[in-house]
C-alpha cells in the first residue's frame, strides 16, 4: 500500500472545466461525473483554479435572486488550488487529508493537468488495503 502512487488511483477520463464556461454547464459536468468539484484549466491544461458544487450553489442563488445574468466559472472559481503530483504516495496524500481539505485534488505533472484524485478513491484504496491485511493476518493465524 505504501508504494501505491496517486497515478494509480486518479481519474484521467474526466474533462476539466475551461475558463469562461457558463456556470450552468459547470453544474451539468459536475452532476454527470458525480464529483463535488473540478479543476479549471486554460487551453494548455494549466490549472488556474478549482470550482466546487458549493461555489456554484451560492453563485447561482445570488444570480437568480438578483436577475444579474448567468455567471461563468471565472467569477466563482477558487484560484491557486492545492494540486498533487502523480508520483505522490497514496499514503502520504491520505495523511494530509482532513477537515476543511479539498475532496478532489487536481493531479499536475510538468505544469499540466493529467487527472484528478478524490477522497473517495483514497478511502477505497485504504479499505482495500485493510481487507488485504486482515486476510493476511487470518491466514497467518491458521498456519
UniProtKB/TrEMBL annotation:
PROSITE patterns: CBS (PS51371). InterPro entries: CBS_bac, CBS_dom, CBS_dom_sf, Diverse_CBS-Domain. It comes from the Bacteria. SUPFAM superfamilies: CBS-domain pair. Pfam families: CBS. Gene3D superfamilies: CBS-domain. Residues 10-68, 77-132 form the CBS domain. Keywords: CBS domain. This is Inosine 5'-monophosphate dehydrogenase.
Amino acid at each position: 500500500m505504501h508504494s501505491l502512487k496517486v497515478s494509480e488511483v486518479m481519474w484521467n477520463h474526466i474533462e476539466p472545466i475551461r475558463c469562461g464556461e457558463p456556470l450552468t454547464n459547470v453544474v451539468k459536468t459536475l452532476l454527470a461525473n458525480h464529483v463535488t468539484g473540478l479543476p479549471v484549466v486554460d487551453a494548455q491544461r494549466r490549472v488556474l483554479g478549482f470550482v466546487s458544487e458549493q461555489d456554484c450553489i451560492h453563485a447561482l442563488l445570488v444570480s437568480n435572486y438578483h436577475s444579474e445574468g448567468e455567471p461563468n466559472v471565472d467569477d466563482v472559481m477558487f484560484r491557486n488550488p492545492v494540486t498533487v503530483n502523480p508520483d505522490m504516495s497514496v499514503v502520504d496524500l491520505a495523511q494530509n487529508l482532513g477537515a476543511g481539505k479539498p475532496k478532489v485534488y487536481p493531479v499536475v505533472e510538468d505544469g499540466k493537468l493529467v487527472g484528478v484524485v478524490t477522497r473517495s478513491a483514497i478511502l477505497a484504496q485504504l479499505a482495500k488495503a485493510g481487507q488485504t491485511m486482515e486476510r493476511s493476518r487470518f491466514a497467518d493465524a491458521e498456519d
